[in-house]
Amino acid sequence: MAGSAGRPAAARAPGVRPAADRDGDGVTDLHDACPDDPEDLDGAADFDGCPEPEVVLEITVDEAPPVVRTMVGEQAGGAVLRVERVPGPCTVGVDAPGFAPVRREVALGPGGLRLHLTLAPVPGARVAVDRQQLALAEPVRFDGAALAPSAPALLDEVAAALELEPRLARILVRVHADDAALASARAEAVRAYLVDAGVGEERLLTEAGAGAPAVALLVETWDPPA
Predict the structure, then answer these.
(1) Residue 142 near residue 123 (C-beta atoms within 8 A)
(2) 0.70 exceeded by the pTM?
(3) Is 96 strand, coil or helix?
(4) 66 pLDDT band (50/70/90 cuts)?
(5) Residue 177 CB partners (closer than 8 Å, separation 6+)
(6) Of 173, 144, 142, residue with least CA distance to 158
(7) % helix / strand / coil in the chain, to the nearest 5?
(8) What span, in angstroms and rounded, lies between the C-alpha atoms of 86 and 90?
(9) pLDDT single digits (tens) 121-169
(10) Rg (CA), the chain
(11) Which phi and psi angles does 117 have, rounded to 5°?
(12) What's the rounded Cα separation, in Å, for the pair 186 and 48?
């Protein structure tokens, strides 16, 4: 039988058997730390031949408005996330816009681990995130076409929320003002500030029009995790 590029396939030497792989995971028994338990190819130590234990995070939200609960996958008062890690010490944490970050140092054993983490709202947080919009607790204020002195601090919170939530892949900055030209200038002022604050230009679109003065930050594209 011909091999690749028309060459004859190499014949197996007499008496030589293929390397044993009892669990069929592609890691031969000679190099397999767990020859009877197949590797699960989860991105964590995929070639040691062992399935990694699972960290199960039970997340509940403490007195959060529904718009923020959606952000952390709220289902019947909470969410469950599953992550696989190599056994040993590790830091487990959850970050969500409008909440105090939670961190827990744990030792992960072969049997896995189940943790219950509670997210507490940050007092005074002005930005809440869901799959439709970034809801602001107060308006972005302007001085003519420029940002008013109070606006940068609020937009810094918006930039921080976007950094914590990369699934918000594209945001539409929609601005209305007394006339379309003023609205366009204000939309550009918001976009430029967010870019300077570290938000990628490719994540921001602008839309302007005449109408009652307002700023809306709408989610155009939501990319769920793979």
Answers:
(1) no
(2) no
(3) coil
(4) very low
(5) 183, 186, 208, 210, 211, 213
(6) 173
(7) 20, 35, 45
(8) 9
(9) 676 778 877 777 888 888 899 999 999 999 999 999 899 888 887 778 8
(10) 26
(11) -115, 135
(12) 56
